[in-house]
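Example 3.2
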Amino acid sequence: MPKIYIIDVTNRDGVQTSRICLSKLQKTMINLYLSKMGIFQSEFGFPITHHETNYLNANLELHRMGVFGDMRLGGWLRAIEKDVRLTFQLVPEIKHLNVSISTSDQMIMHKLQGKIDHRRVIDEMVEAVKLAKELGAETVGVNAEDASRTRMEYLIEFTNAARDAGADRLRYCDTLGYDSPFSIYERVKRLAEETKMPIEIHCHNDLGMAVATSVCGAMAANDAGCDAYVNTCVNGMGERAGNADLVAVILALKYGSGIGGKYRLDERINLKMAWKICKYAAYAFDVPIPINQPGVGANAFAHESGIHADGALKDRRNYELYDFEELGRGEPEIIETGRQITVGEYSGIKGFRNVYEKLEVEFKDEKTATEILELVRYANVHNQKPLTADELRFIAAYPEICRKILTMTPWKPDCPDE
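Structure, written as tokens:
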């Protein structure tokens, strides 16, 4: 029986949100939380972008150490030979890739502007897939950008060519949030039936339907007998109106009428991490969680009107589809109201030791403590905001890898060309 897996793209599409960004340490923490949440794969960045190189290689090192469990780390690049070669020059140990190219008439004619035609689009994609596999990629997903506006016959031809070249799945990109739940179901079901290819669903929220279209697309792939991979972003971050929200997609797949129990969601999913990762992402992005956000919003389990409050107190199922405990909520949050010692870019050793003692982290000697303090100082400059307790613990646990993550090497003319 086919399954539905989650591929989170916060560290790729989420960070492309206009006016915001994440530091490399924050991206690493997102990967850590995603792995603890049981996510199948994190699209962790751009292998051909030079300022990502140290971060990507350091995270792959963490992966080899088992820090991310069995979660895969995948890179995004254009489906052209130059990008594939540069990927393996800069990030030689990368094993999972998504290569992307536009497929709609609109984009081939008005974005690519006639530089390549429909036949050449397929040929370049095929060359990129084959080369990626030759250079060491274990899995390659092929992105059909603007798939929702692509002629169906051409999309089927494109997908068949990707499959025959060795691609592992087709990413159906609803790049403009154009699909409705009905249209994406029909299109993805036909695509999967005719190509027998696992389908990855990537939906944007321009019409407010990203979660619904993502779920319906996944259902369609499963109904056609193929595995589905749903792309999500924490807190629905992403370009323009955002991407499908991670927690809302999982909740819909677990509790939606006619969905939960019928379709098989990856059993590794651990919703108890939802509250933690959503709070962290809101802090890191500096974008508050809306109070009415499904599952993690401040009002998601709040009842005020008399009828609702009375009903919820009698039996929570009267007004709550799922339990707040399932999302890792319910524990009291402690707020310091007295003296606080924090660590920052100008902290001294005594204040630093006080903070780590509260975290119950001990250092074997003064030299080690001083080295960690120096990394913490750099991390504060890197993040441009106070570090969280988990970030402080991470730095103490993996100082050498953290040093690599915090190191930004300026591009030089003799570097491989993007």
